[in-house]
Design goal:
Helix 4 packs parallel to helix 5. Helices cover 31% and strands 13% of the residues. The chain is an alpha/beta fold and 283 residues long.
Length: 283
């Protein structure tokens, strides 16, 4: 791309923090109608997050969010209400009314998983940015208070790790944002799922090459229809990454011994079948 072309792309807001092959279609979150509510769920889990957890339609495959397959680690009678939206930070989730919408849906006893940070750190699309020691901390603290005020159970989560290695060592890329989540959890007494650390550990155990397959990293030779020219997105996860992340989330959720924990049956964090979508094996 020429310099003028790059400037034009930035002006249009088309430059992404992760490199994407030219011509790759963007996922359209609006083409995924919400599932019909369960008649009488034994528990409900709501998700407030970004593109790493969000629902996607078939046209976005192999991209998936971990929220799409969390159900596979839960009792089938548990309802998952995935309100994650791509490109949102804690700031824009509030400003666009998405947080107010979640509170309208929240019922006493619901568990709310809160995972932000990727977009809060975005200094290119500055409307998303929050200072980790300022507005980001304040927004997370507000989320916890708002949920408790309505009788819900907040669970804070560090943002899922990126696929970044130096030599044979996976790298911490969320720094102050992940630490801010831990600090807010400690200050408020909210339960914590450290998905950043857990996903880093899962990658380190598999090595750089072995963990690359959890992200949207492809060569043209991989023959992925959505990325005919290849792709080098080290942030967003594919089906395998979504299933792994959901299993890690579920394992921690079971360990927290919350009321919902009795209905959590974590899928394996080892090799899982790739089914071409969010179906659950054996269901």
């Amino acid at each position: 791309m020429s310099l003028l072309g790059l400037i034009a792309a930035l002006a249009l807001g088309q430059a992404a923090s992760s490199a994407t092959a030219p011509g790759a279609p963007k996922p359209d979150l609006t083409d995924v109608p919400p599932p019909a509510p369960m008649a009488a769920p034994v528990a409900r889990v709501l998700i407030a997050s970004d593109s790493t957890a969000a629902n996607y339609g078939a046209s976005a495959y192999p991209q998936m969010g971990w929220g799409m397959v969390l159900k596979c680690s839960l009792d089938p009678r548990v309802e998952v209400v995935n309100l994650a939206r791509g490109g949102r930070s804690t700031k824009t989730f509030i400003e666009e009314g998405l947080w107010a919408g979640l509170l309208e849906k929240l019922k006493p006893g619901d568990t709310v998983l809160i995972q932000f940070g990727h977009n809060d750190a975005d200094r290119v699309k500055i409307v998303r940015f929050t200072d980790p020691r300022g507005a980001y901390t304040d927004n997370l603290t507000r989320f916890v208070a708002d949920i408790r005020a309505k009788g819900g159970q907040p669970v804070l989560m560090t943002p899922i790790a990126k696929h970044v290695f130096v030599g044979d060592q996976v790298q911490e890329t969320h720094g102050l944002y992940a630490q801010a989540v831990r600090d807010v959890a400690k200050a408020t007494g909210a339960p914590l799922i450290d998905l950043d650390a857990d996903m880093m550990g899962a990658q380190q155990a598999r090595g750089e090459a072995g963990s690359r397959g959890f992200y949207l990293i492809y060569t043209p030779q991989d023959g992925v229809a959505r990325y005919p020219n290849g792709n080098t997105d080290t942030t967003h996860i594919n089906e395998g990454g979504a299933r792994l992340a959901a299993s890690l989330v579920a394992a921690r959720l079971a360990f927290l011994k919350l009321p919902v924990s009795a209905y959590v049956h974590p899928a394996s964090t080892g090799a899982q079948p790739i089914l071409g979508g969010p179906r659950c094996p054996g269901r």
